[in-house]
Automatic annotation (TrEMBL):
Organism of derivation: Seongchinamella unica
Matches recorded under Gene3D superfamilies: Cytochrome P450
Protein name (Swiss-Prot/TrEMBL): Cytochrome P450
Alphabetized GO MF terms: heme binding; iron ion binding; monooxygenase activity; oxidoreductase activity, acting on paired donors, with incorporation or reduction of molecular oxygen
Cofactor (UniProt): heme
């Protein structure tokens, strides 16, 4: 499919949702879908794309009809025999959080609910601030950096690795594992990438199983120890397949999404210098700015649901066995909820009506932590860097091709170092 200059006269059928072009810049397509076919059967597939805020919220409430137990429908899709062979001998992750429905979902959810509660996350403030400062120290004298490698990726990576109890020396491998798991989830990988991903998944499992084994014998004060020694059902311990599944979800969900929000947030502020100025002058806007970034950037672009029975929804019949893609990124620009929805406005009164963290049963248990990392991270960056700009000639601002997650590949910026006297603690005032 080629881009045409007369975008506005295009109809829905002119767009191929699965193409890299549309995934790269999907917003005209989302707008048309919301208007013309809010429950849209993607041509040539059994996937119904849902794009309106109210419809997604209604579906999220009906977990019996729109089930999260979809993993078996996607697993191994499009993988060659050679790649499947590479997965032989690995642990098939059990369905735990993201891919289970109530009541079974509650068994696992209750294990992780309190890990990143508002109170626990508030106690992590100084610890997060210290990591943020160390990362900024690492590049501030250079006057430029690739923001994702220097900041947006290591911040959540370090935090989640520390919480899980993974050695920081392993962070580079940890990043490869996280990227590989995220790419597999996104379902748009070449055969070559699929092989690398399979090898990374093997390596990840071997390492984590070793840690689980060690923590079972000698628990420490970390999340893997808590999970490895937890009891469920009638007092049994979690199996390797359950533990791998939970750790994997925390790794991908906790990393890639927060990285993309930080990078997308930085780009939004650079593109809207008046908003960046407003934020510097009024750090109290930071918490709302973070909600607006999540609304506009929505790294969790879409999540799957499996349809368990024939159901009529808004006049469209969705048959049992079909897949639904809840397009959170489209709902967050729904004009029915957000005035002038395509405008980035850090003072938007209802920015936090976004559903970037989902809603209901599967509402993101890491939401408080992600918000904290963004508030402290972006706050400190504005406090310590001035004149932040896109580095000339170095950016194509493209995103990873991924059906589920949306994130920039790289973001080169230049900046001046702010004199230390200007340190009004922006994030402290905001959080
Ligand atoms: C900006 C950052 C983040 C965004 C946008 C985000 C988004 C989401 C969304 C939309 C869901 C619900 C999925 C569904 O509807 O099926 C979810 C679930 C989840 N998130 Fe996050 N997330 C973020 C950060 C985090 C962090 C930091 C962690 C962990 C430390 C985390 C862990 C999880 C887990 C474990 C689930 C599964 C929960 C369940 O199924 O009960 N997320 N997240």
């Amino acid at each position: 499919m080629r881009w045409r200059p007369d975008r506005l006269s295009r109809s829905l059928q002119d767009y191929n949702f699965f193409s890299e072009e549309v995934l790269e810049c999907p917003f005209d397509f989302y707008r048309l879908a919301r208007e013309e076919a809010p429950v849209y059967l993607l041509p040539g597939s059994n996937i119904y794309l849902v794009t309106r805020h109210a419809d997604i919220r209604a579906m999220l409430k009906d977990t019996e009809t729109f089930s999260s137990n979809f993993a078996h429908l996607l697993s191994g899709a499009g993988e060659t025999e050679e790649v499947r062979a590479l997965y032989e001998g690995t642990v098939e992750p059990a369905d735990t959080l993201l891919t289970l429905d109530p009541p079974r979902h509650r068994v696992y959810r209750s294990l992780v609910n309190k890990v990143f509660s508002a109170r626990r996350v508030q106690q992590m403030h100084d610890y997060i601030e210290q990591i943020v400062d160390e990362l900024i120290d690492g590049f501030i004298d250079d006057g430029e950096c690739e923001f994702i490698a220097a900041f947006a990726s290591p911040l959540p990576l370090m935090v989640i690795a520390d919480q899980l109890g993974i050695d920081r020396e392993l962070l580079p491998r940890f990043k490869v594992w996280s990227d590989s798991l995220a790419a597999r989830l996104g379902g748009m990988v070449s055969p070559e990438q699929a092989k690398d991903i399979a090898l990374a998944v093997r390596e990840f499992q071997q390492y984590i199983l070793g840690v689980i084994d060690a923590r079972r014998r000698e628990p420490r004060d970390d999340m893997i120890s808590d999970l490895a020694t937890a009891e469920i059902d009638d007092g049994r311990s979690l199996s390797d397949a359950e533990l791998i599944s939970i750790v994997q979800q925390f790794l991908v969900a906790g990393n890639e999404t927060t990285t993309s929000s930080l990078a997308g947030g930085m780009l939004s502020l650079i593109r809207n210098p008046q908003q960046m100025c407003l934020l510097r002058e009024g750090p109290l806007h930071m918490a709302n700015a973070v909600e607006e970034i999540l609304r506009m950037e929505t790294p969790s672009a879409g999540l799957w649901r499996a349809v368990t029975r024939d159901v009529e929804f808004n006049g469209t019949l969705i048959p049992a066995g079909a897949m639904v893609m809840l397009r959170y990124a489209a709902a967050n620009r729904d004009e029915r909820v957000f005035d002038d929805a395509e405008r980035f406005d850090i003072c938007r009164h209802n920015a936090d009506d976004h559903i970037a963290f989902g809603q209901g049963t599967h509402f993101c248990p890491g939401a408080m932590l992600a918000r904290k990392e963004m508030i402290v991270g972006l706050g400190k960056l504005l406090e310590r860097l001035d004149n932040i700009q896109l580095a000339e000639g170095k950016n194509d601002l493209s995103h990873w091709p991924n059906m589920v997650l949306r994130g920039l590949k790289s973001l080169h910026i230049t900046f001046d170092k702010r004199p230390r006297r200007a340190t009004r603690t922006l994030e402290n005032e905001a959080s």
